[in-house]
Amino acid sequence: MLNVVALMGRLIADPELRQTPNGIATCTFRIAVDRNFARAGEERKADFIDIVAWRQTAEFVCKYFHKGSLIAVDGSIQTRNYEDRNGNKRTAFEVVANNINFTGEKSSSQGNYAPGGYAAAPAQAPAARPAAPAAPVSYASGSADDFAVIDDNEDLPF
Hints:
mainly beta
């Protein structure tokens, strides 16, 4: 069987680190993931997906990610049944995280950091720079030893 999930989205709230009675770190959080398709004239919709992280992964998330942070998660879907306050039976679907990664590039300029030390999106797109003319590539400087002839009668070298 195959149960693999890969998601990239933004945290909708700050994650909170908790401990089980046995002292195991756990963290639950929700991310907003944009859908790939948007109907003409409508805004792109998002799905809000619950994520559960355990042990060092939970500590990593709580230390480096905050509300609005872009995050990449890979894991598997897990379901659990519970009874709500009114006595109704419910089923929860969650992604149990195996790996969590930063997404985007870390900014080298000062002052434009988002929580977690990664670059926040600039308010305006930077002005386009004129492209430098590309120098023509010359292959005339190559030697005859650059390529070796393989004899078809012999075994291949790999």
